[in-house]
Amino acid sequence: MKSLADRPVNPVVGVEVAHESATLHVTGTALYTDDLLVRNRKVLHAWPVQAPHAHARVVSLDGRPALEVPGVVRVLTAADVPGVNDSGTKQDEPLFPSEVMFHGHAVCWVLGETLEAARLGAGAVKVGYEPLPSLLTLTEAIEAASFQGHQPTVSRGDADAALDTAVHRFSGGIEFGGQEHFYLETHASFAYVDEAGQVFVQSSTQHPSETQEIVAHVLGLHNHEVTVQCLRMGGGFGGKEMQPHGFAAIAALGAVLTGRPVRVRLNRTQDITLSGKRHPFHARWEAGFDQNGRLQALKATLTSDGGWSLDLSEPVLARAMCHIDNAYWIPNVHVQGRIAKTNKTSQTAFRGFGGPQGMLVIEDLLGRCAPLLGLDPAELRRRNLYLPGQSTPYGQPVRHAERLHTIWQQVLERADVERRREQIAAFNAAHPHTRRALAITPVKFGISFNLTAFNQAGALVHVYKDGSVLINHGGTEMGQGLHTKMRQVAATALGVPLSFIRLAPTRTDKVPNTSATAASSGADLNGGAIKDACEQISARLAEVAARKLNIHPDDVRFANGTVTGIGFHDQDIAFADLVHDAYFQRIPLWAAGYYRTEGLHWDGARMQGEPFKYFSYGAAVSEVEVDAFTGAYRQLRTDIVHDVGDSLSPLIDIGQIEGGFVQGVGWLTLEDLRWDVSDGPHRGRLATQSASTYKLPSFSEMPEEFNVHLFEQATESGVVYGSKAVGEPPLMLAFSVREALRQAVATFGPAGREVQLASPATPEAVFWAIRQAREAMPVPPASAQAGAGPVPSRASSSGH
């Protein structure tokens, strides 16, 4: 294989092209899992029977009344499972549970001729429950010592000794909530059995190979007897990495038992109440600084809310611990992690995969400590940025650390920060009840799966006799533009126009044993595999062309559908003609490509090694305006400079940066998951289970001015065409908005005061933070208060 990073002359990568399905999306003709029903007859519909308790034992289950409902065909229970009654990779998630572990847990499923028949049948099933004590909050779980899984530690130096000798020592804590994925397409699976007994599952899944494995596991089959396809997803964000497996297994089990196609498609309420979310976290920390505000030590305990089963909680916690440093050098570190077991949905992957939770701890810490140190928050952050030659607490060198400083300076200049700070100061002096503030935060995010074995990929490339090309790879498309980038990689590697390349749906019978499309590694892994396959083919074609042009194969060049030789530009061969000739010379015109990320090693027990191929860097400046009377705020402007290496597809990358940032702002400022934690009959019920009760970012929450710039001249060696991942890192640039809100709140109080801000920093949370800041102000003489306006009291503002 040629160097992964090298680009030929006039490559197709790096060119701004539209998303490969853009036309289908805007015309409404793009097909998703549930759309395939029209191609099949006699489809059965599945509906879950959901438990009304947070924790209970199932003492009886009678499905016979459901069978009396017209249109009901079958009730699926644990007794119907021919294989193993479990849909989790840790063997801790019964598909049909005998013990209810969260409110809404599905205890059985009803199949009907219509969705309405299945719904009515589910309502007729008689289930007896014995309620059991439940744990819903992190505080309850910690007090009860309810933990699950490993409890890892990341350590470097002597944190205790460094804290003892620190010039400044602070301690604190923070608890912050999760986040609902709220992808447009809810979980959906469709299954049937063909005449040979092969089980086919079309699933909205980010991990087809694992879905295949779980379905086979439940059915008692070998993996090769199950084929899983993912045409495309209407969003995933990590929520379709592990969670689809059980729904696919229900569809497949129903199809095997009835001999008819079975469809599972959750409505929005079912999706929110049945599937996992971003992990909430609780953190306690102690930090030490020297006289110049440089971090000397950090000691912390992170507790994540894993919900009722492990799912991906262990690797999520590990990544959180590996990112608690974010972009900052901390010489002495001791961080402990643990996973709480609660009676809630099993929390799962979400864009950033623990990285945002770890980074939130350090960014919150710096934002709170800056005024206590008498430093501007931006200056405190700048002083602590990694320098070349330094390494992370888990032992990985921070390569290209100088990019952090260059990006920091570039975003300050592009955002015209100095001039705008003067304008903000003047505005604040003239507006006692409306204040503005501006904040800058960086990001350093490791790219690769922490588990080294997952960093591999395969691809299958076919070149047909007319020169057209079909590619299959193990990655899945969920709107992020992966397929677009892969077409560009194939076109560049073969030297043909983009129009020559077509991409087939992801299927386990084409590319086996694939890793999940996750960890922002989809383009790195699958792009490397596609490039490998294409280069095998082009090497064979070069031999054919060399004989025809009478030159050495190394001198053959492929570009824009034409094959030429160095120094022989007057002689050329059309790519299609060369392929035709190669066929008649019995040259293989297909290849299986493979890629594995080199240079990785990770000891999960010791939490030491180099788990990441590289780090993605970026920085954002955000300005906000807050209203003291209501806590409402506006995002006035955001400027971002982000490092994507040499972009494979600039339009796609900019779109991902914008979308990731807005999703991060949603998590940090709007999206508030609320459960009924009372001791009443609805304990454990999720109250925010629809679009009407769960607040999502909309156009009104977008920055009024939004500027995104790709960091230039940033080739990343050892990665496909010098690019870098883009999916997850931009989400963490949203910390700039939260920190701007904190600094705006601070202007209502005395200087040098720590501002604690809840997360999510909803308008309500901002309002109370402003109240606390104002209450901390010294009371001025009566004459000085004239004209300042009354400060509403807590009672009067909340009494309505």
Automatic annotation (TrEMBL):
Region (Disordered): 778-800
Source superkingdom: Bacteria
Keyword Acyltransferase recorded: no
Pfam families recorded: Ald_Xan_dh_C (PF01315), MoCoBD_1 (PF02738), MoCoBD_2 (PF20256)
Keyword Repressor included in the entry's annotation: no
EC number: 1.17.1.4
Signal peptide positions (record): none
Domain Aldehyde oxidase/xanthine dehydrogenase a/b hammerhead intervals: 27-133
Group of enzyme by EC: oxidoreductase
Cofactor(s) it depends on: [2Fe-2S] cluster; Mo-molybdopterin; FAD; Mo-molybdopterin cytosine dinucleotide
Keywords: 2Fe-2S, Iron, Iron-sulfur, Metal-binding, Oxidoreductase
GO molecular function: 2 iron, 2 sulfur cluster binding; iron ion binding; molybdenum ion binding; xanthine dehydrogenase activity
Family: Belongs to the xanthine dehydrogenase family.
UniProt protein name: Xanthine dehydrogenase molybdopterin binding subunit
Organism: Arthrobacter mobilis
Classification lineage: Bacteria, Bacillati, Actinomycetota, Actinomycetes, Micrococcales
